[in-house]
Each structure stands twice: as C-alpha cells, then as structure tokens.
Specification:
By secondary structure, the chain is α/β, with parallel strands linked by helices. It is built from eleven helices and ten strands. 40% of the residues lie in helices and 17% in strands.
Length: 285
Amino acid sequence: MKDNRNNQSTNSGGILYIVGTPIGNLEDITLRALRILKEVDCIAAEDTRTARKLLGRYEIKTPTISYYDAAERQKSRRLVARLNSGESIALISEAGMPGISDPGYRIVAEAISAGIPVVPIPGPSASLAALVVSGLATDRFIFEGFLPRTLSALKKKFFLLRDEERTIIFYESPRRLLVTLGAVRDVLGERNVVVARELTKIFEEVIRGTAGEVIDQLSGREIKGEIVLLMEGRQEKPSWDHISVAEQIESVINDLGITRMEAIKLVASLRGVSKSEIYREYHQE
C-alpha cells in the first residue's frame, strides 16, 4: 500500500504502522488513522475484542490478529515475516499509542533491524491527556509507567524520585490508588498530586490537591476505571508536620526492612537535616 510519509524511502516489503486509537471516546481518532486501518493487509491488536468495537463503529473490515504481551516475542517474528513478504500491518493497543506501557517495542525493534519502514500515526495518549489538564508544569516531565505493587518497593521508588524537579506521570490501578497516595505522603510529604480518572469517558474526573487532600476526597469511595497519577516535581523541602520523626523512622524500618541507623540516615535525607539531629530527636521522643 502507499502512504504519504514525507517522501521516506521504501523497501520492497511492507510497512509497519504504529496507530494511535482512542483511550475512551471513539470519536478521538484521526482521519488518517481510519484510512490506514482500512488499507493495511492486517491489524495486529493487543485486544481483538476492544478492536472490534472501534472497527465496527467505522465499518472497517480489515482482518485482525491478536498481539499481546505474553505472545509478543513469537508474534513479532511472524509479523516481521509477513512484512518482509510485502504485507503492510497496523499495530494498535487496547487504547492510546502502542508501545507506551503496552506491547509494541519488540516488533518495532525487529522491523527496524529487518529494514522495514516503521511509520507513526499519532493519536491519543492517556499520559499526555492527563498532563495537559493537570495544572502541573508541562514544560518538563517524565513518564514512569506502572508503579511497583508492594508497599516497600513503592516507597523505594518514591524515595529515588525525591529530588526530581520535573512533573512525574504514573499509571496506577484503582485498587492500589489510596495505598500509593499514602506512600507519597509518607515518603515525600504533602506533595501536590493529580488523579486523572476515566479520561474521555462518561465518568471522567480530575482530582487535584496535596497527597493528603486527595486521600480525603477519595476515602470511602469505590474507585473504578483507568487511572493516571501525576506528581509535582520537588519545589522546596517537603512538610513533615503530619508525622513525627519516630513514626517515620519506624515506618521506614517496617516498610523497607532496613536497620534503625539506615532508617535514621534515610529520614535525615528526606527531611534535609543532619543525621545527628534526627538521631537526637528520635531518642528524645
């Protein structure tokens, strides 16, 4: 098939298109994406059931095959073979841009190695949609993807990000959201955060505030849907008024499994004071 790709050179094989699809509202798809999905020989979809809803809405009858995480290595080789034979393939994820915390990286890398043109068809991204409505700084940001599942690993993650000055974007499960926000507060103090839920869908919601304020807003609610969590970069020393030195040290020991002296050193680093000051305050309480 042919496509206007700014005069990129083509080989005798096919083309791999990385196609962005809606993250919720099915109207959020480009005219070019619709054309490509109709014209390619095959659509490789992370979830063929979700794909059928989109394709049915726009009367696209292109054959689909599944392309998901567990089978990515095996399916990539097969798809590259088809591309080499001259077929063109569109890769779509369950929602948004393929490869962003979704399958896609492997087939893109293998296609490039095989000399096959890889063409992006830009579209929605939950992380960027959340960023632009967050109210946090958008000029400099980082994307950290999905957060660790265990509390100790979660707190270690936030500790490593304690001095990051850019806005930080995560994906999180609604079931773990309150625990994650609690970990933010325990490790980073009352940092400003934003919870963007169900973006572009019927129950779209954006909640802004400090970690504690957002916890208060969400406590007692049943939290559902896709969650993007954004965190303000470090602006100044965090406030630790909500927890004493002794409580924080004991929490760090329990969560990270480290010695008391290691915990004292870590808490001193978090609070921006000397280790001796934390040691003295700890033994006075």
